[in-house]
Design brief:
Length: 304
């Protein structure tokens, strides 16, 4: 097969070579609308609605004329847009943080004593944030990982059908609870319990934060891991049972190894989703001063 033939097949992956003239014109107008939107949005955002309307009309026309090519182009555009947006966010964060890195140098990640953050004194340090995130992530993973996998195994392989029909939707509903609710529970229950029974005199225990984050990630881990376990082909456990092994040996030696990639993805997805939430961490370890019987939040003090 010649190189020219291979390149022609790749360039025609969207089926453009088989489009009619009006369809090619519509594709060109759609591409111009996307480019115009990017330019106009940077120059005058209030006028960006017009390229959007043009793109929607062209998309509607293409959907009526040739759904396959239009769907392929839309999915490709969505993929490229996701990469571009993430890249722009990264560039924006790097650009806005260059001043702090220029002022502090390597001390921004190595400074661990004295004043660690004071914008008025132009002092910035990331070590406490990095350390706190690492510790709370480790605690949350140790909580959500084993408990989530155990719950997924029970729902998928051990629970009766009627129990599965009740527990599975309930777990998925728990995954939709807002993070502020978990933060409120952590602030009022977890922190209070640790202060009353473990003798903590101040608010802000990393274990409390990690515990709340792990509980918040638990429904996601259970739901995704259960889907991964149920996706294992029935022929694999059936073959193991036919050889005379027990149900637990089948789960341990056949089902779990076959679904380990999905289970690990469930743990990463659940903990990653919870780590990105700031409200539980803010509620449990925010700018709050506590004694044994009273908590006061400095941010709640009205200004005069």
């Amino acid at each position: 097969m010649s190189v020219t033939h291979i390149l022609s097949n790749r360039t025609d992956s969207f089926g453009l070579g088989r489009l009619a003239l009006d369809e090619r014109i519509a594709a060109g107008v759609g591409l111009c609308s996307v480019v115009a939107f990017a330019i106009v949005f940077l120059i005058e955002p209030s006028l960006a609605v017009f390229p959007v309307i043009s793109f929607l009309l062209v998309t509607l026309y293409g959907w009526v004329r040739n759904q396959a090519v239009t769907a392929r182009a839309l999915t490709f555009l969505a993929t490229v847009s996701t990469i571009v947006v993430l890249g722009l966010i990264t560039l924006f964060l790097v650009f806005k943080s260059t001043t702090a890195f220029r002022i502090m140098g390597l001390d921004i990640v190595t400074k661990t004593d004295g004043t660690l953050w004071s914008s008025s004194d132009r002092v910035f340090a990331l070590a406490p944030m990095i350390w706190g995130t690492f510790v709370t992530t480790l605690i949350a993973t140790c909580i959500a990982g084993p408990l989530g996998i155990a719950g997924a195994i029970f729902i998928a392989e051990m629970a009766p059908g009627w129990v599965r029909d009740i527990v599975k939707p309930g777990v998925e509903m728990l995954a939709g609870i807002p993070s502020i609710v978990y933060g409120f529970i952590g602030f009022n229950i977890v922190n209070s319990a640790m202060m009353d029974y473990l003798g903590l005199t101040t608010l802000g225990s990393l274990f409390a934060v990690g515990l709340v984050i792990g509980i918040m990630a638990l429904p996601t881990v259970v739901s995704v891991a259960e889907d991964a376990i149920t996706a294992v082909p029935n022929a694999m456990p059936d073959g193991a049972l036919a050889l005379g092994v027990t149900d637990w040996q089948t789960i341990k030696s056949v089902i779990l190894p076959a679904s380990v990639s999905g289970i690990s993805a469930a743990v990463i997805l659940g903990v990653g989703r919870a780590i990105g939430e700031t409200m539980p961490r803010r509620s449990c370890s925010g700018t709050t001063r506590c004694s044994r019987n009273r908590c006061t939040t400095s941010s709640a003090t009205p200004r005069r």
